[in-house]
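sorry for the late reply, my laptop died twice this morning and i had to redo everyting from scratch. anyway the thing you sent over, i finally got around to it. pasting the sequence first so we're on the same page, its 297 residues, then the predicted structure underneath. double check i copied it right bc i was rushing
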Amino acid sequence: MRRRLPEWFLLLLPAIIVIAAVILIPLLFSLYSSFTPYKLTRPSSLWNWIGVRNYERILTDAKFWAAFGRTVLFLTIALNLELLLGLGIALMVNKVTWGQRTLRTVLMFPMMFSPILVGFQFKFIFNDNVGLVNNILQSTGISNAALPWLVDGKLALFSILFAEIWMSTSVFAILILAGLFAMPRDPLEAAKVDGCTSWQSFRHITLPFLMPFVFIAMTIRSLDVARAYDIVQIMTGGGPARRTELLWTLMSRTGYVDARMGLANAMGYVSILLSIAFTIYFFRKLSAARAGLGMEG
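ok and here's the structure:
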């Protein structure tokens, strides 16, 4: 008799087909094309195997390493500022006794906006001529001339960081606030009885308890920031003179503007190493923080 397929496999088969079509096949295709000189303008180049030549070219490409370093810098500054601001907001909201639910709802608004919408919003806010920031600075007498927020390299990177931090600080605030709600009150009351100051209670009791929540937020946000594209592309397009170009905007330019899709895919797999490195780092920190609280299991 013909052997029948297991029922569990038949039930999962539609999901397997969808995952294979949407994720697995494009992933394998991009991996294969990273070993070819594939150009969008020359489809036949997809079948020319060149080995690791694209990866060797990346390792000696100054533009790639500039974008790589800029991405790491962008990620480091964004994560640390989002952590500090999110921690401060969570501590203040936790102290509120009236209207806290409304504040928590309002706190989630920035993360609900599309990054493309946020990019257009802050592109208008930092506009040289009609931007809100320049109008405020000039009307209050702080500046006599309009500042080139999106034209000057350093100011442009600051503007993108500001938009990114505004949109994503709420991720830290919400997760840290969840940690504050889950925190037991007995250790804080015992510390108060023993004469500990508010800072000592926060430093030695509250903060260690919150660290697992902090590292969860760090892991989530490191993956987002490491592949930042939308806000950068909308606000500056990687300019001026590539001063704000990050890894994913460089990949987009290489793949779709220069049509060198094989090289762009190779850049993508190298940049994945950045995301994996940060994820492993924060997971180790999370495990250490959980171990410190006796939560190894």
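The radius of gyration is 24 Å.
thats about all i looked at so far, will dig more tmrw
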